[in-house]
């Protein structure tokens, strides 16, 4: 994997070049609650004009409530680029999940839940996305030692295996097609390498190694996830597939990646520099410091 900074690269450059990277914008964990941060709107607009596809890694809303869904609708209706998303655990908290899904979809978002989706670009290139929320369960024995007291319960194990199986099915569908980029979109993490400062005892809530194992059995270019607010952006599965934690608490807002199939993933920095205030995280400053922090545990 090679990660480099691209200086300038408008998406229309080199349109005749079959090797032109697939450019995606990515964000997760917007946790929209009572207002849309102005900085977030500015950054999403900047991304919109520069990318082939926007992917959203769940926790679009803070509590899955319909007024929060209406905020999501308002924000996402501004985006003209095709959007693909998975829901996060916070989006599933509200009592009216079907209505929330419809609201988000009516803003033009393709919601994936164990699905394979192929998106054709105007120049004929085709992007494959396997989207599934994923689940917790932990990373032992692959990436962490077994933690006494945090063994996965039967129920967590069942759901973790089911989600991994759904991811495998979606990737098997994509494997039958000629694609210019293959992306896995998750809410939960498939590796510990993007968990950063998350406490070890919380790992079982943040993802599981089954997801990473499935990914490594397929030809995946990039894995996008969120959920780990205290994590870090750059990581990889045990088999070396590039993974990016795009929780906005980690990245400071939307990020842009260029994918060259089977070769490398580059981070594009220049697009957002003109609109990003380095002193302001658009999500953190909306009032929620760490929605995953259990009550009584000091924040970081
Ligand atoms: Fe979150
Ligand atoms: Fe989450």
Describe the protein:
The chain is an alpha/beta fold and 300 residues long. The chain has one domain: 4-Layer Sandwich (Purple Acid Phosphatase, chain A, domain 2). Helix content is 24%, strand content 19%. The protein is built from eight helices and twelve strands. Strand 6, helix 4 and strand 7 form a beta-alpha-beta unit. Helix 4 packs parallel to helix 6. One fe (ii) ion binds next to loops.
- Output the CATH topology: Purple Acid Phosphatase, chain A, domain 2
- The largest sheet has its strands arranged as 4-3-2-1-11-12
- What would you call the structural class? alpha/beta
**Radius of gyration, Cα only, in angstroms?**
18 Å
* CATH level-1 class: Alpha Beta
Residue stretches low in confidence (pLDDT < 50, at least 5 long) are 1-16, 285-300
What would CATH call the homologous superfamily? Metallo-dependent phosphatases
Instruction: Estimate what percentage of residues fall within beta strands.
Output: 15-25%
Identify every distinct bound molecule in the structure, by name, code or SMILES.
Answer: fe (ii) ion
């Amino acid at each position: 994997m090679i990660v480099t900074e691209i200086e300038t690269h408008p998406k229309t450059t080199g349109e005749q070049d079959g090797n032109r990277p697939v450019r995606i914008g990515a964000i997760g964990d917007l946790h929209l609650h009572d207002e849309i941060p102005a900085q977030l709107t500015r950054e999403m607009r900047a991304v919109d004009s520069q990318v082939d596809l926007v992917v959203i890694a769940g926790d679009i809303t803070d509590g899955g409530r319909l007024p929060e869904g209406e905020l999501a609708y308002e924000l996402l209706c501004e985006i003209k680029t095709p959007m693909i998303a998975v829901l996060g655990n916070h989006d599933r908290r509200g009592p009216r999940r079907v209505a929330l899904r419809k609201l988000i979809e009516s803003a033009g978002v393709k919601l994936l839940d164990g699905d394979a989706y192929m998106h054709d670009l105007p120049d004929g290139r085709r992007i494959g996305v396997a989207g599934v929320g994923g689940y917790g369960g932990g990373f032992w024995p692959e990436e962490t030692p077994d933690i006494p007291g945090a063994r996965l319960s039967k129920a967590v194990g069942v759901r973790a295996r089911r989600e991994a199986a759904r991811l495998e099915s979606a990737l098997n569908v994509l494997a039958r097609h000629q694609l210019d980029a293959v992306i896995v979109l998750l809410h939960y993490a498939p590796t510990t390498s993007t968990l950063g400062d998350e406490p070890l005892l919380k790992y079982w809530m943040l993802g599981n190694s089954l997801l990473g194992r499935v990914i490594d059995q397929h030809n995946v270019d990039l894995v996008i996830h969120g959920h780990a607010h205290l994590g870090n952006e750059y990581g990889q599965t045990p088999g070396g597939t590039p993974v990016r934690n795009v929780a906005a608490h980690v990245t400071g807002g939307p990020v842009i990646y260029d994918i060259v199939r089977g070769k490398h993933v580059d981070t594009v920095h220049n697009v957002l520099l003109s609109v990003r205030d380095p002193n302001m995280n658009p999500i953190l400053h909306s009032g929620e410091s760490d929605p995953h922090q259990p009550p009584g545990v000091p924040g970081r």
